[in-house]
Amino acid sequence: MKIPPYLQQGDIIGITCPAGYMPLEKAETCIHVLQQWGYEVLVGKTLGSKSKTYFSGTDEERLNEFQAMLDAPEVKAILCGRGGYGVGRIIDQLDFTAFKKNPKWIIGFSDITVFHAHINRNYKIATLHSSMASAFNGGGYKNKYVQSIKAAVEGIKADYSCKTHKLNHTGTATAELVGGNLALIAHLIGTKSDYQTKGKILFIEDVGEQHYNVDRMLHQLKRSGKLDALAGLIIGGFTDMQDTERPFGKKVYDLIHELISEYKYPVCFGFPVSHDKENLALKVGATYQLQITHEQVRLREK
């Protein structure tokens, strides 16, 4: 796995919105903080665009801007302003030739999972799953989750810990880390962006889904073999979950626990990767050691 160069003072970070619309004012704090961190910021036209639809621009506009940032050698990282939906509409039209020669950090989560998976599967270059522009607002840039972005792109190896959970499976695994939003991972199965999970540590999270839909997506992962030969599994936050009028009968963590009960690899529930503020930066494609005991959970970048 190739790791993009870590950032140096004065490097340029591009901000673009390859999916949903985001007002410019919601990214102003992010822009200022990145500058305070010592970086120059290239603000794309898709951020705060005049689009009247859900998207931050037409497919062509979003594609062209992301392509330009991929190709520009002076841009050392691309921070996606927000996720939402839309990367899957443009991913197959992007040309990664220049990116392969001069890798750079692709940063974001949620719908940006499409980039993480596609680049991991096809180009074996690490990317950064992390919070995006709005997480900097309201003083959020001071918390450890946003600060973990800075540490990651500057080359500080992650060493995270979290509370134990009664549903955890104890054990230790050292392997490549892959993952992201459950809905997108399931959506990508059978495509050119489909994660290969055998022998890897997989992390998943999601937001705003009904319990039965989470169950359906997890069964899709299981039936397609994505859960069979993992080195380890990290279950992040499943926030704002909903139930049907006639109850599904199980909460999300319980249905996950039941579905993976046959597997012997270590499993961590409640890791701080989510659509909430608890969203630690994780390098997709990098090697991590996951240690789960009855006393602690630790995830260390190797």
Widest beta sheet: strand line-up: 6-13-12-7-8-9-10
CATH-level-4 superfamily name of the largest domain: LD-carboxypeptidase A C-terminal domain-like
Integer tally of domains: 2
- Please estimate the helix content: 10-25%
**What is the CATH first-level class name of the largest domain?**
Alpha Beta
- Largest beta-sheet details: 7 strands, mixed
- Detail the poorly predicted runs: none
CATH second-level architecture of the largest domain: 3-Layer(bba) Sandwich
Summarize the helix and strand pattern as letters: EHEHEHEHEHEEHEHEHEEEE
How many helices? The count is: 8
Q: What's the β-strand tally? A: 13
Annotated CATH topology of the largest domain: Glucose Oxidase, domain 1
Shape: globular
Strand content: 15-25%
What does the average pLDDT come to? 98
Measured on Cα atoms, how large is the radius of gyration? 18 Å
Q: For this entry, what is the oligomeric state of its chains?
A: single chain
Distance separating the two termini: 13 Å
Structural class estimated from helices and strands: alpha/beta
